[in-house]
L-fuconate dehydratase (Streptacidiphilus monticola), 442 residues
Amino acid sequence: MPTDTARITALDTYDVRFPTSRSLDGSDAMNPDPDYSAAYLVLRTDAGDGLEGHGFTFTIGRGNDVQVAAIEALRGHVVGRSVSDLCADPGSLNRDLIGDSQLRWLGPEKGVMHMAIGAVVNAVWDLAAKRAGRPLWRLLAEAEPQWLVSQVDFRYLTDALTPDEALTLLERARDGRAERAGTLLARGYPAYTTSPGWLGYSDEKLTRLAKEALADGFTQIKLKVGADLSDDLRRCRAARAAIGPDVRMAIDANQRWDVADAIAWTNALAEFDPYWIEEPTSPDDILGHAAVRTAVAPVKVATGEHVQNRIVFKQLLQAGAIDVLQLDATRVGGVNENLAILLLAAKFGVPVCPHAGGVGLCELAQHLSMFDFIALSGTTQDRVLEYVDHLHEHFVTPTVVRDGHYRAPTTPGFSAQMHPESIAAYVYPGGTFWSTELEEQS
Ligand SMILES: [Mg+2]
């Protein structure tokens, strides 16, 4: 069996940036001009089967080089490892990367270094799913509960969730897994769209895109808010007029406010019946979220795209600070830590509506939501996965959303792989797109 001796032979990195700031796609109250970017890596092996592990983390432009450097700092932990051992137990790499004591000083388990760990760990899961011949959601959904529990780092969690409790949650969901997989393949996983609501869009564009979202089968849209209250009142009025009273409309402040502002501003927009207020304040402010939640009910409080690790999510849940948990596929330490976060949410009975959009976040997050539906929470009730119709064309197996639902991917892997031509064009600063741009500017 030649593959049993196969090793990881290379970890290659790419600083990939897309010029999204020019169209104000992705603009919000905190991030007016993002260039959606991926700090991207490829794991190569000598297995001779042509399979590679692809992974990345999402940034919004400057600093993507810093993120790439952080990924490169992990190379020594990965190159030379046994491919079959790694794919049988990605958690072993997760523990080694988090446990590098010198690099741990830069966190611990937060920020640039932790996102780098997430990118590398996710690349291993991509490779593992490809070798298993399954899309990642299916690999996870068909896995033995005991093995899934072994993939989770319970350090700092056991006051809220023990391994035994996690096992019970997964065992409880065994019944009906095949039936739910059938439902998923037939209908897909419910999505909502943020495409109408970028802050830089005109009212006319907002109204047109909101109506298009309805026609496309979405039952929830999201608007960016938080820069100017009179603008927000006008935009929320326009959006509500476009979609009518029965479609859910979430609002997202991207951390713009202090707690008192968050409460006053959300209540000022309450007449438009927002479903949730997203990132009302700092993602580190657990008690602040709890205060906002009490003061703006029945508007729900959502956060998570900038929550740095499972420990902060644990506290948000323990404090009763959120109604909706928005995990991110690349913010934390990869699939292993997101398993922990999904288990915490299941324990506390809080629905998970992942953050997506960016570059490739939809492609990754769909696998986590689909696993959650089939093998953990067992429901899509009040669960929706964010969808933004940007940059999917750069991926080999882009997400497919139809009638307001993500279609379940069937190609083996984590859907993380970009086209080589896209990388060649948008790698910074030497890619064909950027070198032409930079030449014209000089
Ligand atoms: Mg958001």
